[in-house]
Design goal:
4% strand, elongated
Amino acid sequence: MNRRRFWGAGALLVLAPLLLFAMGPRAARRTVDAALRLSPASLRSVLLAHRREVDRGFEEALAEGRGRRRGELVERLQGEMEEAPRLSRDRAPFAAVAHSFGRMAGFVWLLDDPFLENAEPALREVEGDYASYVERKLPLLILSFDGWRSPPLTGDLSGYFGRRALSAQRYRTALKTCYYPEGKRVSSETFDDRSNAFGVAQAVLSHAASDIAKVWARAWGSLGGDLSAAPFGGPPAPEDPEPEGR
């Protein structure tokens, strides 16, 4: 299957082929591809022209952020979002800007990881297996876009990703039910495509793609970048943010 379908807000996006990364390598690549498809045209053009730098920044952020607490990851993401305008003011090459955007994506990916700050041994035991499960099921997963205003990425980043953490707790509970239905671990090979494990994968990848796109749009707006020509109505203008949503 050479093309993947990405449903969001009732519309269809066609994703690029899968190549790299981590929940497993191809899952991360697909998520970044989806975020690119959601981005304003001017930003998408820059990042696609320097995709290698985007990927390199993404990998760097994963290596730097693994094992860190949520608050530390938010701080690093905020720092990277503040770094991008400095690069623009200093007239840094677009490759350097793309690298910074890749790092933003990596930190968002880690922040949306349902296993972040997981302290439960039973779930730590299945984390690698679940990554493999998601990789196996990736061709069947349908990613949905949350919407630019559902909720908008305005105000404090820690508040936004704190709300994501509440979802992560529900996802971990659902996964524990799948892996330990009667208190004893079962194989992910027994999960069907109506299982909570499958639904969690779709939800997590969808949130990650949505959040990367929102973070990128916010950073691009801070550079004075053109936010027009983005799918689904586009992000709120930086000078006219909407109130925090649900």
